[in-house]
Amino acid sequence: MIKLTKLNGDEFYLNIYQIEKIECRPDTTITMMNGHVYIVKETIEEVIEKMIQYNRKIFGDN
C-alpha cells in the first residue's frame, strides 16, 4: 500500500493492486476497480513512482 494525501491534507493508504485508472482532471483522480474515486494532491508521476518503489520493496529490484 502507498501513502497518499487527500486535498484536505488527510493522509491515507491505498492498495495499488486495486487501481483501475489514474487521470489528471486537473487534480490527480484515482478510480478503483470497485468504482470508488480518490482525488489526491500528488501528481500522476508521483503516484506512479510510489507504486514502483512499493513493488521494488515487495518483489525486489529485479
Automatic annotation (TrEMBL):
Pfam families named among the record's database cross-references: FlbD (PF06289)
Organism superkingdom: Bacteria
InterPro entries: SwrD-like
Record-given protein name: Flagellar protein FlbD
Keywords, in A-Z order: Cell projection, Cilium, Flagellum
